[in-house]
């Protein structure tokens, strides 16, 4: 379960489970396979349920916990899409603003796996967490270019804003090029000449290939989906209340023990 679009009270859009039925024209999957992915919320309903219809999916590695698989879809698609748009090359430097969050923590790992040097912003409490994920941490907020300069990084090649906290002017200063910046959450982007990526909502190509990449990276110990807490679906209220509290580190997941025969 995750609520990541800028809409109020949106139900979960991520799910993992065992394939029960397969739609027309879908191939590469068999009834009984273990999969994870993203539902099409507008057409096919949410994911906080015993059954969900996945629009984007990949096979779940046998060793990947269901909780992680069930929380991976949207953050992985989004991070992959943003990285594809920025296209940072191996050996170059990418700054991720909001790197410890749901999308940011996935973007750090996928970028590091592409051979990119990642600098991620987070509150001080999350700096060790970012190091574990593969990023050099720096504290977010006003004065970011000065703090990066003090780290010996006066400029970065690309910047991804996941937080939408008003950093675009700083990110432009650090990259020197609006085309080198993408935001996922700052709706003032057009006034800065910066791209706001909204994925399928804006008719953009999605980052669905990132799901299988994430699965492959998981099997070699180079990918994890941070989980804050898991609740049985009967405790959905507790799950939502936990999600609404700030200062989380990881996803809130709802689990379903068993699904009835239809
Ligand atoms: N456009 C799209 O396609 C798309 C898709 C998915 C999500 N989103 C949007 O992306 C945003 C992030 O989603 P998420 O799931 O990653 O949220 P999240 O898990 O709540 O993470 C947000 C992160 O922002 C960081 N943060 C807080 N204040 C900050 C500041 N002043 N400067 C920089 N970072 C700050 C926090 O870091 P600390 O924990 O270290 O304080 C937190 O980890 C949301 O607005 C969401 O709606 C957009």
Automatic annotation (TrEMBL):
Instruction: Report biased composition (Basic and acidic residues) as residue ranges.
Output: 238-247
Keyword terms: NADP
| GO MF term (any one) | oxidoreductase activity
Its domain of life reads Bacteria
Residues of the region (Disordered) are 238-262
Instruction: Tell me the protein's name.
Output: NADPH:quinone reductase-like Zn-dependent oxidoreductase
Q: Which SUPFAM superfamilies match?
A: GroES-like, NAD(P)-binding Rossmann-fold domains
Q: Which residues form the Enoyl reductase (ER) domain?
A: 2-254
Q: Does the keyword NADP apply?
A: yes
**Matching CDD domains, A to Z?**
MDR_like_2 (cd05289)
């Amino acid at each position: 379960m995750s609520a990541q679009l800028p809409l109020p009270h949106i139900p979960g859009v991520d799910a993992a489970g065992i394939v029960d039925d397969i739609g027309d024209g879908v191939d590469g999957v068999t009834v009984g396979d273990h999969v994870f992915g993203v539902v099409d919320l507008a057409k096919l309903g949410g994911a906080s349920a015993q059954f969900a219809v996945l629009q984007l999916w990949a096979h779940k590695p046998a060793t990947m916990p269901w909780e992680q698989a069930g929380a991976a879809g949207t953050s992985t698609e989004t991070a992959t899409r943003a990285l594809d748009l920025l296209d940072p090359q191996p050996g170059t430097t990418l700054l991720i603003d909001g790197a410890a969050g749901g999308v940011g923590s996935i973007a750090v790992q996928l970028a590091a796996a592409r051979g990119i040097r990642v600098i991620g912003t987070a509150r001080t409490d999350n700096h060790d967490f970012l190091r574990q994920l593969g990023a050099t941490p720096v504290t977010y907020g006003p004065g970011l270019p000065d703090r990066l300069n003090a780290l010996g990084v006066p400029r970065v090649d690309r910047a991804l804003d996941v937080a939408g906290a008003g950093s675009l002017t700083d990110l432009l200063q650090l990259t020197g090029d609006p085309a080198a910046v993408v935001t996922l959450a700052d709706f003032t982007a057009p006034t800065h000449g910066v791209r706001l990526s909204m994925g399928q909502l804006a008719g953009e190509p999605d980052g669905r290939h990132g799901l299988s990449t994430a699965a492959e990276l998981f099997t070699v110990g180079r990918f994890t989906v941070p989980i804050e807490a898991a609740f049985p679906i009967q405790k959905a209220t507790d799950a939502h209340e936990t999600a609404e509290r700030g200062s989380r580190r990881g996803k809130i997941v709802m689990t379903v023990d068993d699904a009835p025969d239809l």
